[in-house]
Design goal:
Mean pLDDT: 92
Distance between the termini: 116 Å
Low-confidence stretches: 1-17
Number of strands: 0
Number of helices: 23
Largest sheet: none
Shape: elongated
C-alpha cells in the first residue's frame, strides 16, 4: 500500500513539475512579448492547478495580449486564482472591482480583496490597500494607516509602495514632511523599476528639493520614466525640451513628447500641446487644434486647460465668441485652483459682462486670485479699495496692495504705488 501511495505521489510530483515548467516557460515567453507561445503555456498551467498561471492568463485577457481583450474572462481567471490562494490574483481581482471592468464597480469588495492580497504576502496588495485608505474608498479615510501600508509594501520589495511612501513624505500627509526622505524613497522606487518613482525623483532634482538642483539629472530621470511607460514623465521631459533646461532646446521634440503624454491621457500634456498650437511654437499656429486639446485637459481636471479654453471662447479664437461659456470655464478654472481664472471671473463681475455687475463678488474673486499668487488680482483689489467699490474706501490698504502687486512683478502696481505714495505724503 505504501509503495502504491508512493508511486502515486511520484506521478503527482512529475505532473506538478511539468505544470510548474509550463508556468516558468510561459513567463519567459511573456517577457519576450511572445504572447502566442505564452498563452497556451499559462492555459496549461492554470488547468493543471497552478493558480499563478490563471492570474497571468487573466492579465493577458485583460490587456488583449495574444488574445482578444475580454474583461469578463479576465475577471473569471483572477477569481479562480484568488480562490486558489494566489495573493496576486486577489490583487488583480480587486483592481477589476475598482475600475468596474468585467464586474460592477465595488470599492468595498476591492478593499476586501486588497486586504486579502496584502495578508497573503503580496506587497503590491498592501500598496493598493494603502491607496484605498488614503482616498477613503470602501473604508474610512485614514492617512496614517495608508502610511503604514505603503511602508509595508516598500519594505516587502514593491517599488510602487516606495513611490507612494515618498509622496506621503513629500506632502507631509500622515507623517512629518521630509523632502530628503521622499528623495530616498523615490530613488529606491526608480532603481526598482517604478517609472513613477523616476518621474517624481526628477521633479525633486528639477526643483532642488531634498537634493541639489540639477536639470540634467532631472532630464535623465524624466527620460527614464517616459521610456518606462509613464506618460507624465513624457510631459515633464517635454517641458525641459521646450525650455532648453538640462538639454538643448528642441520644440519639435517637445511637441512629440506632449503628444505622447496627451495620448496617454495626461491632462497636463494635452494642455502643453494645446499651448504650442495656441502660440505657434514648434508647430503652425492653429486655434482650432488648440481648442480640443484645452478641452481634453480641462475635462481631465487640469484647471489651466479650463482657463485657456475660456480665453478662446472669450476672444473668439478658433470658435464662435461666447462670453457665457467663457464665464463657466473661468469659474471651473477658479474652483480648480487656477488664480488667473478667479481674476478673469472677477473682471466679468466687475464690468457686468455676461453676468449682473457685482462689485462684492468681484472683490472676493480678485482677493482669491491675489492670495493664489496672481499679481493682477492684488492690483485689482487695490483699485477697488482706492475707488471704494465693493469695499469701504481705504487708500492705505490700496497702497499696500499696489506694493504687493509691484513686488510680484506687476508693472502697473509699481507705477500706481509710486503715484499714490506721493499723493499721500503731501
Amino acid at each position: 500500500m505504501r509503495k502504491v501511495l508512493c508511486s502515486i505521489c511520484g506521478w503527482m510530483l512529475v505532473v506538478g513539475l511539468a505544470y510548474a515548467s509550463d508556468l516558468e516557460e510561459g513567463s519567459k515567453a511573456y517577457e519576450k512579448r511572445d504572447y502566442t507561445q505564452a498563452l497556451p503555456l499559462y492555459e496549461k498551467a492554470c488547468n493543471g492547478g497552478f493558480v499563478e498561471g490563471c492570474s497571468n492568463l487573466g492579465l493577458m485577457y485583460e490587456k488583449g495580449e495574444g488574445v482578444k481583450q475580454d474583461s469578463f474572462k479576465a475577471f473569471e481567471l483572477f477569481e479562480k486564482a484568488c480562490n486558489g490562494g494566489s495573493a496576486i490574483g486577489c490583487n488583480n481581482l480587486g483592481l477589476m472591482y475598482v475600475k468596474g471592468e468585467g464586474v460592477k464597480q465595488d470599492s468595498f469588495k476591492a478593499f476586501q480583496l486588497f486586504e486579502k492580497a496584502c495578508n497573503g504576502g503580496y506587497a503590491g496588495g498592501c500598496s493598493n490597500l494603502g491607496i484605498v485608505y488614503e482616498k477613503g474608498e470602501g473604508v474610512k479615510q485614514d492617512s496614517f494607516k495608508a502610511f503604514q501600508l505603503y511602508e509595508k509594501a516598500c519594505n516587502g520589495g514593491y517599488a510602487g509602495g516606495c513611490s507612494n511612501l515618498g509622496i506621503v513624505y513629500e506632502k507631509g500627509e500622515g507623517v512629518k514632511q521630509d523632502s530628503f526622505k521622499a528623495f530616498q524613497l523615490y530613488e529606491k522606487a526608480c532603481n526598482g523599476g517604478e517609472a513613477i518613482g523616476c518621474s517624481n525623483l526628477g521633479i525633486l532634482y528639477y526643483k532642488g528639493e531634498g537634493v541639489k538642483q540639477d536639470s540634467f539629472k532631472a532630464f535623465q530621470l524624466f527620460e527614464k520614466a517616459c521610456n518606462g511607460g509613464y506618460a507624465k514623465g513624457c510631459s515633464n521631459l517635454g517641458v525641459l525640451y521646450e525650455k532648453g533646461e538640462g538639454v538643448k532646446q528642441d520644440l519639435t521634440k517637445a511637441f512629440q513628447l506632449y503628444e505622447k503624454a496627451c495620448n496617454g491621457n495626461i491632462a497636463e500634456g494635452c494642455y502643453n500641446l494645446g499651448l504650442m498650437y495656441d502660440k505657434g511654437e514648434g508647430v503652425k499656429q492653429d486655434y482650432t487644434q488648440a481648442l480640443p486639446l484645452f478641452e481634453k485637459a480641462c475635462n481631465g481636471g487640469y484647471a489651466k486647460g479650463c482657463y485657456s479654453l475660456g480665453l478662446l471662447y472669450d476672444n473668439a479664437k478658433g470658435v464662435k465668441q461666447d462670453s457665457f461659456k467663457a464665464f463657466q470655464l473661468y469659474e471651473k478654472a477658479c474652483n480648480g485652483g487656477e488664480a488667473i481664472g478667479c481674476a478673469s471671473l472677477g473682471f466679468m463681475y466687475d464690468t457686468g459682462e455676461e453676468v449682473k455687475q457685482d462689485f462684492t463678488q468681484a472683490f472676493q474673486l480678485y482677493e482669491k486670485a491675489c492670495n493664489g499668487g496672481y499679481a493682477k488680482g492684488c492690483y485689482n483689489i487695490g483699485v477697488m479699495y482706492y475707488k471704494g467699490e465693493g469695499v469701504k474706501q481705504d487708500s492705505a490698504k490700496a497702497l499696500g496692495l499696489f506694493d504687493k502687486a509691484c513686488q510680484m512683478q506687476e508693472e502697473n502696481g509699481c507705477k500706481v504705488y509710486a503715484i499714490l505714495k506721493k499723493q499721500m505724503e503731501k
